[in-house]
Amino acid sequence: MNERQPLAATRQRVREELRERILTGRLRPGDRLVERELADDLGVSRVPVREAIRSLEAEGFLVVQSPRRVVVRQLARVDVEELFDVREALEGLAAGLAAARAGAAELKRLERVLADAGRATARGDAARITVLNSRFHDEIVAIAGNALLTTMLQPLEGRLRWLTSQNEHWTELLDEHRRLYEAIASRDAERAKASAVEHVRVNREVTLRSLFGEEPGERPAG
């Protein structure tokens, strides 16, 4: 990484690289981040690393346990449940608005994302599947055309992408997205909203089993 890049660009690159390492599992919950080691690894000074850490702490990815100890956040079950509660409400709204506002060009964009996702699913390309699944939802939000909704979702985007990556039932996930597309293409806002909510609820169940070995609504004994 070239430290002679404009400082703002260097900050952004460092933040995005560390964020991507968390999202892809290279940095796992509980892993410690050491400024000096990361600076050496990325070929930058410690300043952009320190600023990236602050930014990722604000996004909810990191926990500063002490001035000298920063770790990747271990999401508790309640954190995951709360994220899915918010996701269900906002994505249901987005899908309903998208069904009411989607034109031929917008639907064609969704079709292309689904086609790419289908090819990635056939290859078993986990990283590409995660990117395309996020892009599919981003396209729906863009079609919804509600600036406030977009603003509300932006701070959650990374954590929602991370949750989506926990679902490795790729064929089923693709089928759910195809059903959601069909609901949006039908221009039936209520059908699209119901399809989005059902999709989020299925993903919630899969994620809770993957992370905690629990069904939704269950609580650990004791």
Layout of secondary structure:
Layout: H1 7-23, E1 32-33, H2 35-42, H3 46-59, E2 62-66, E3 69-72, H4 77-101, H5 104-123, H6 126-144, H7 147-153, H8 157-165, H9 170-185, H10 189-212
Antiparallel strand pairs: 1-3, 2-3
Task: Write a brief caption for the model.
With 222 residues, the protein is mainly alpha-helical. The chain has helices at 7-23, 35-42, 46-59, 77-101, 104-123, 126-144, 147-153, 157-165, 170-185, 189-212; strands spanning 32-33, 62-66, 69-72. α2 (35-42) crosses α3 and α5 (104-123) runs antiparallel to α9 (170-185).
Low-confidence stretches: none
Give average pLDDT, whole number: 89
Element string (H = helix, E = strand) = HEHHEEHHHHHHH
Share of β-strand residues: under 5%
The percentage helix is over 70%
Number of strands: 3
**Strand neighbour order, sheet with most strands:** 1-3-2
Structural class of the secondary elements? mainly alpha
Main β-sheet description: 3 strands, antiparallel
Rg measurement, Å:
19 Å
Which overall shape is indicated by the principal axes computed on the Cα atoms?
globular
Oligomer: single chain
Distance, first to last CA: 49 Å
- Total count of helical runs of at least 4 residues: 10
Describe this structure in words.
The chain is mostly helical and 222 residues long. The protein has ten helices and three strands. A three-stranded antiparallel sheet has the order 1-3-2. A hairpin with a 2-residue loop joins strand 2 and strand 3. Helix 1 crosses helix 3 (46-59). The radius of gyration is 19 Å and the shape is globular. The chain starts with 6 loop residues before the first helix and ends in a 10-residue tail after the last helix. The model has no long low-confidence stretch (mean pLDDT 89).
